[in-house]
Amino acid sequence: MPGSARTEGAMSERRLQFLGFEQPIAEAEAGRERLLAAADGGEEKARELARLDERIESLTRSIYADLDPWRITQVSRHPQRPYTLDYIERLMTDFEPLAGDRSTADDPALVGGLARFHGRSLVVLGHQKGRDTKEKIARNFGMPKPEGYRKALRLMQLAERFRLPVVTFIDTPGAYPGVEAEERNQSEAIARNLAVMSQLAVPIVSFVIGEGGSGGALAIGVADRLVMLQYSIYSVISPEGCASILWKSAEYAATAAAALGLTAERLHELGLVDRVIEEPLGGAHRAPEEAARRIGDVLGEELEALLALPTERLLAARYEKIMRYGVYTSG
Amino acid sequence: MMFFKRGASAEAKTGRRGRGVPEGLWTKCPACNAVLYAPELERNLRVCPQCTHHMRVSARARLRMMFDPETITEIGAGLTPTDFLPFRDSKRYADRLHQAQKQTGENDALVAAQGTLLGLEVVACAFEFSFLGGSMGSVVGERFVRAANLALETHAPLVCFTASGGARMQEGLTSLMQMAKTSAALARLARGGVPYVVVLTDPTTGGVSASLATLGDVLVAEPGALIGFAGPRVIEQTVREVLPTGFQKSEFLLAHGAIDMIVDRRELRSRLARILRMLSGAPGS
Questions:
Q1: How far is B128 from B107, CA to CA, in rounded Å?
Q2: A166-172 and A204-213: which strand pairing?
Q3: How is residue A140 annotated by DSSP?
Q4: Smallest Cα–Cα separation from A174: which of A215, A228, A146, A226?
Q5: B14: pLDDT confidence band, cut at 50, 70 and 90?
Q6: pTM of the model
Q7: Hey, are the CB atoms on A236 and B238 less than 8 Å from each other?
Q8: Where are the alpha helices (DSSP H) in B155-197?
Q9: Which one, of B93, B105, B102, lies nearest residue B135 by Cα?
Q10: Which residues of A touch B145 (CB under 8 A)?
């Protein structure tokens, strides 16, 4: 359908932003807008519009047909990419946000609460980035501090107590590396979550929706089912960080991105990710409603399968899955 | 015994290489610059007799310092790393592995063993920091899990000496997953009522710090060790200010409630034995 490459729904108010490698699409789109703004041109204008729509679609199709890992990284960080709260809003009802770790603070970089999905109550949580500068700063660019991870822990234990499944959305550059985060023991906050999640007696489904930044991502990602959006990434270290250590310059980020194997496709091949959800043409930000619908379909299927398992089997399967991580030879 | 021979040679080698002093007879203390007679330094467990600076210790020497002599059996020694991605920066990971193996005499960055500590059955592992920065990849994770499982089966307490820069980048996301793997094994160990004590040594950061290193029932640190989630350079770049002195050192962690105690290496053996005996219900010795 021509025009499907453009955004729809609540986020369509804002003008679509284009990444560097999308310049040909951006130019065609600008041409289309100029034409739209021009005085009424009757049938010819309509024909020209249709031609441009087709061109935009085919350009998008060809550029997105073969994105390298660095371009995928850029899409995963697109400023208009749907964030955790965008998906909660579209997928769930009755959302009741819950705040605080009961000891230090509420961390706006990690949101969560009670909600219903297809009528079933559950606990949902995830990293949350900000849209404008003010919100970005308030949410610390989606980088949680220890109190964020401890809030997540509290919510997960709440879920366990009331036998509610847990859904997590992963989208963070990483856990915050700052003085106060160290003072409050960032390491322990992450480690505790890993240990507790491995034995949490309710189903856990995790979706990587944008950036899966290292330990800060994993701290809410030890799950029965790990699902990635097609243009999300998940990595032990950011491409820039890896490049500055191993190539001695962040300029090699694209090379590092390729070497790290951080794309959904590659991680699925490696057996580290259970499922990959194909994104709408041009990325989830162009069609957030459609992206949410696809996530909802997968979530429905996965929850149904996991909820059918007796708790003991669920936990045994999760443990075995975790123990399978690793490639080595044993002589 | 094989365990001792390998350890001795590796240590002699690193000693020579590290200091650049011929024949490895003299070592300079990096803290107070005192020139120390190497055999005496070794007898003092690589603690500077002048200023008590705790120098780094190889994994094998660590375990030898802790276990009763002639009681050590290695765990998971046959596991070997592979360049499965494969990963290449200026060098291939396969070559880096080969080089690290030659340099350290170890096949990866963790050595695990069982034995006795002042008569008490104990399972222990130690990170080899000179092997790719003590980074945790598949072999480190699997070896750690095998040690934890053996501790669970035999109800012997588990001890881990950490020294690591974090997860091993060259194994990609698989190395990150070792954080989940080791933590899951420790959750099971905790549920089984088996004590786990961590000795944090210089330096312990990143993915190791944010998994197995902070999950101990008791957390002990050596004096002056750098311990943290993010390295000081990364934090400095983030906050764009000079970090306070002593930031992320053992003493800082103790003051912030992150660890239980700081123990001088020369007292570590007896203190560990005492703690482990109390936790595991063994009578006092």
A1: 10
A2: parallel
A3: G
A4: A215
A5: very low
A6: 0.94
A7: no
A8: 172-191
A9: B93
A10: 323
Distance CA A257, CA A249 (A): 13
Closest approach of A86 to chain B, Cα-based (Å): 27
**Inter-chain contact A261–B173, Cβ cutoff 8 Å?**
yes
CB contact under 8 A, A222 and B229: no
Mean pLDDT for chain A overall:
94
Comparing A6 with A105, which gets the higher pLDDT?
A105
Judge whether B214 and A191 are in contact, CB under 8 Å: yes
Which residues on B lie below 8 Å from A323 (Cβ)?
145, 181, 184-185
Q: What angle do CA B36, B205, B277 make, to 5 degrees?
A: 75
Q: How many CA atoms lie within 13 A of B60 on its CB side?
A: 23
Tokens of A130: 């900000």
Q: What is the mean pLDDT of chain B?
A: 93
Residue of A nearest to B247 (CA): A179
Pairwise CB contact (< 8 Å): A199 & B191: yes
Chain B residues inside the 8 Å CB shell of A178: 230, 235, 238-239
d(CA A235, CA A214): 6
Per the model's pLDDT, the better-predicted residue between A321 and B20 turns out to be A321
pLDDT digits (tens, 9 = 90+) for A224-248: 999 999 999 999 999 999 999 999 9
Rounded CA-CA distance A256/A172 in Å is 19
ipTM of the complex: 0.95
Measured in angstroms, the CA of A8 and the nearest CA of chain B are apart by: 34
Residue among B100, B77, B220 at smallest CA distance from B168: B100
Type of residue at B157? P
Phi-psi region of A312 (alpha: psi -120 to 50; beta: other; left: phi over 0): alpha
Whether residue B187 and residue A242 make contact (CB cut-off 8 A), yes or no, is no
- Rounded Cα gap, residues A53 and A21, in angstroms: 19
